Amino acid sequence: MVDANSLELGQGAAVRAGYPFRGGVVAAEQGPAWVVQMKDLDAAGRVRWGQVVRAHLPGRKAPDWLQAADLLVVARGNRFHSACLDEPPGPTVCGPHFFRLRVKPGVPLLPAFLAWQINRAPAQRFLSSHAEGSDQLSIRRGVLESLPLAVPPLDTQRSIVGLAAAANEERLRLEALIRNRQQQLDALAFELLAGSGQAGGLDSAGAGPPQCG
To answer: Could you tell me which of 10, 32, 14 has the C-alpha nearest to residue 93?
Structure first.
């Protein structure tokens, strides 16, 4: 059993809401800030910085600029997953569908470990069980701050983060292998049809697979 201290998320990290855009984010090539939106996160929980748009920031609220090692937690939807940021390209905020987390000074908690723990089943079950809404589920700031955490020594945190990174790389390699195999099988199917002289028969009426049974 791993030794760990218990605390609530709000004790270890400051939680702030995303920038309060009214309506959608309007891209502006000369905008003063980059804006991270939900569509900018990939399946592994990383920000695709190359597609993040710039925009003007409406209203008078002082921007809460993102920093490297900040966490973004999706506040709405079916899964309240977290992403640990690398260095933003410049002045950057996140949209209102996120909470921004920043580990408090002096707290022995690695941001990458916190992101990992938020994304695992125990935390996801806690957040889902406290989510509210009918059309779209969401979590309140107070719920996120009350999320129970287990914080082991820093060496253990680093080991877990390394193990998680290795598992993610393995998953990406397996997914790439599956895609490659599917492409090979599709190419083989086309070659067989071309060799049988039936390739021209692939129209909208006969393009579907035969039904089993």
So the answer is: 32
How far is residue 141's CA from residue 10's CA, in Å, rounded to a whole number?
Answer: 9
Q: For residue 189, which amino acid is it? A: A
pLDDT digits (tens, 9 = 90+) for 100-132: 999 999 999 999 999 999 999 999 999 999 999
Q: Give the burial class of 156: count Cβ atoms within 10 A of its Cβ; 0-12 exposed, 13-18 middle, 19 or more buried.
A: middle
CATH of 5-152, one of 3.40.50.620, 3.40.50.720, 3.90.220.20, 3.40.50.150: 3.90.220.20
- Based on its alpha-carbon atoms, the radius of gyration of the chain, rounded to whole angstroms, reads 22
Q: pLDDT at position 209, please?
A: 54
124: exposed, middle or buried (Cβ count in 10 Å: 0-12, 13-18, 19+): middle
Q: For 127-136, give one letter per residue: b (16+ CB within 10 A) or e.
A: beebbeeeee
Ordered by start, the domain boundaries in the chain are 5-152, 153-196
Give me the sign of the Cα torsion angle 83, 58, 60, 87: positive
